[in-house]
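Q: I'm writing up a methods section and want to include an example of the input and output format. Could you take the sequence below and give the corresponding predicted structure tokens, formatted cleanly so I can copy it straight into the document?
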Amino acid sequence: MALTDQDFKKLCAFIYEQVGIKMSDVKRTMLEGRLQKRLRVLGLADHRAYCEFLFSAAGQEQELVHMIDVVTTNKTDFFREPAHFTFLAREVLPQLAAQYGRGNGRKIRIWSAGCSTGEEPYTLAMVLREFQEERAQERADFDIFASDISTRVLEHARRAVYSEERIGPVPPLLRKKYLLRSRDPKSGLVRMSPELRAMLRFGRINFMDEDFGLQERFQVVFCRNVIIYFDKPTQERLMHKFCRHLDRGGYLFLGHSESLHGFDVPLTQVAPTVYRRQ
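A: Here is the clean output for your methods example:
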């Protein structure tokens, strides 16, 4: 049985309240298809039964995280939008290293917000390790926090295991340095090296939470190809929350199709889809 109009509207309102994503009518078929997986897992007959369970006390406790995993989109690649990593290495890191490096004990903190299955934070780790090697005199130390709302993709990111098809964008030299091949050559799998994995820590963050549950501040935030799923008021509120966790002079990287045009936020554009906190 397909979603009724009433159940679809109720689900859309709930999804918007929980994660800020607006589900338009054109996404109705997609939502029905994705929820089919949960129907099979839970042994439920139809979408009406699923909605009744989801909105029950037990469903709110047991199913909410799984429902969010189903409705969120997780598309990413290693070295996606490579100009950002070039700008980070050439412009941002030298400046931050001069301020936080020299062995003064202060770490440069970078947040990969909406990290999906981990390709972005592991790309950042490679870029930072290369910078440390090339600019050893700076003695810069880094901390990468990677977050997502989906527990499923966070588990994947923590495992740090990828198919050989996924690592295509990684330059050959970096593959040789930082990627470990499986002992079984037929598996077609690689794993990030221990030195990269040691640079990352992971956490579940819901962007709708008022303060993200974070006490720390960052010098760089990557939040790319995430806000396109939110409406404009939600985007602007989210940018204000990011600014509260971004040091003055810190950098925010957005996706290539995202813009802060018309937003009243303390951010100045310094490169295509790169902004600096005032």
